[in-house]
Amino acid sequence: NESDQVLQSVAWMNDNNKAIEAYITALTQVCSADTPSAMNFSPTHKAVNFTNLTKSGYVFSLSGGGVKLSEKGFVIVDVVMNAADLRAAQRFCCDVTKNGTTFYQYACELSYGWEATLAMSSKLFPVAKNDIIGVKLWNDNATQGYLNVPASYMNVRFYKDLNFVV
CA-CA to 94 of 20 to 30 Å: which in 40, 73, 104, 136? Predict the structure, then answer.
C-alpha cells in the first residue's frame, strides 16, 4: 500500500543507501594490473606492458601499457616484480612511472643466482585526470634475465580528491 508510511520510509532508505554506497565506492578504488608475457632485461630501462586489469571501480583503464586514471586524486602504487635467469651479483631494478617519467625512484634487488623479487610500495602522491601509471625494469649489470609473469603485478590504490585544504 503506497500510503503505508513504513514502506515509504524503507524505500527512501534503500534509495539513499544506494547513493551512499555509490559515493563511498567512488572515494577509494583499487586495481591490479598483470603482465602479458615475459620480457627480457638489459641495462636499458624497459616499460612493462600490462594487458590485464582487475578493478573495483570505474576510474581505471589500460592505456599505453599502464593504468590510466579517469579523474584526479591520489594514488599509492604497490609493485611486485619477479625476475628469473639472473646471475649472482646482478642487480634487478624497477621504477614506477607517471606518464612515462619516473616519479618513484627505483628499488633494486641483488640476485644471489637465478631469481630476485622486488616488492615495493610508493608514498601517496597526486595524480591528474588521464595520468598513466606504469613500471620500468632493467638489469643494472647485463643483458640477462626476464620477467617472470605469473609472479609479477602492480596494484594501484586510488583516493578521490576531496579538495581538502589544511
Answer: 73
What is the rounded CA–CA span in Å between residue 72 and residue 59?
9
Per-residue pLDDT tens for 75-109? 999 999 999 999 998 999 999 999 999 987 777 88
Query: Whole-angstrom distance between the N-terminal and C-terminal Cα of the chain?
Result: 50
The whole-model pTM stands at 0.84
DSSP string, the chain: -TT-HHHHHHHHHHHHHHHHHHHHHHHEEEEEEE-SS--B--SS-EE----EEEESSTTEEEETTEEEESS-EEEEEEEEEEEEEE-TT-EEEEEEEETTEEEEEEEEEE-SSEEEEEEEEPPPEEE-TT-EEEEEEEESSSS--EE-GGG-EEEEEEEE------
